[in-house]
Amino acid sequence: ILIVLIVMINKQYPRLREEVLKKLGKWEPEEEKKEEKPSTRLNSLDTFRGLAITTMIFVNFGGGKYYFMEHAAWNGLAVADFVFPWFMFMVGLSIVLSTQSQLKRNVAKTVILKKVTIRFIKLFLIGIFLNTAVPGGVELSNWRIPGVLQRIGFTFFVCSVLEVLFIPRLTAVDSFGGGERLTVAADDNEYNECGKFLNDNPDIPEKKISNWRFGHSSNGEASCTGKSLLFHTWPQWIIMSLFTGLWCAITFAMPIPGCPTGYLGAGGLADDGQYPNCTGGAAGYIDRLIFGPNMYQHPTCKSLYRTTHAYDPEGLLGCLTGIITVYSGVLAGHIIVTNKSSRGGTLIKLVVLAGITLVLGIVLSKGSLSGGWVPINKKLVDYLVCYDHV
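The chain above was modelled as a monomer; its predicted structure follows.
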């Protein structure tokens, strides 16, 4: 009812405002000639966000008792397990749209970074506050520190900083010479990623940020091929590779007292009860070591496998793979921003991205939900979930 009222008021506001101003004698006729700015929102993203929110609400209120609307106890993947990665993906896509919009308005990068930092702090504090909403209340001794909003805030912060620091303002231009061209708009002393200024002001010193080839479109605008979309993000790829290597090294090589190295099981009765105190492997061990009782105490695997150790699905180690999930959305954002004039080209590139990640996920899991070199497990937020949700 509240939403309907808000929509109705929003629709009636222009007319009511005009009537009030006319009665007060303050209405200016030229205001009638002002054209409304066209919407710049990405409708597909808004639709996807609405779908994710609807699914989340449905799942949180029992999911109609459908088994596929419940979270997997440990390994495996159900519809409910897609919701959080969906939101992470949308965060990454929104980072690109927001950053590019601000750069287009010539907002200083320091200002953007300040906004990003403030938003991260707000999300983290709201998440901490929401962790008090448990039956019976909480004490400081067992107040949960990790959480959903905390992870979203942290991964948003990391990917936003990488986007602001390493990516210039991107604009898509028409195809010419048989290929899609990518440019970076230049205002004042800005230059494009191909190493050539977009304006010919002789007062601006010649500077280059790369040695990539450049060309000129039919209107004389400097540009480079769409292939550079991959290459001009190389600093981000290096950092993401480091996060991947760090996660793999900790997960599969870190020794855990009383547990086999590289263990990814639920502990308790899982694996014939051989490792009852090894819930979550390295991820669980690190969280218990750092947070102690200040972490989630009732994981979904507890009822099925009778585990005795706490495990937090939003723990520290999972933040590394969470960053990868958000970055997959950043990649999609780059594709959308630089292919605005070609829906077909955008769709093809997104399908290719999804196909590559899906194949990689199938190979690593050996085509199974609970087997392979890396099982599909949203609780560990492993790479298979990152790959498969794309």
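Strands lie at 171-176, 179-183, 215-216, 222-225.
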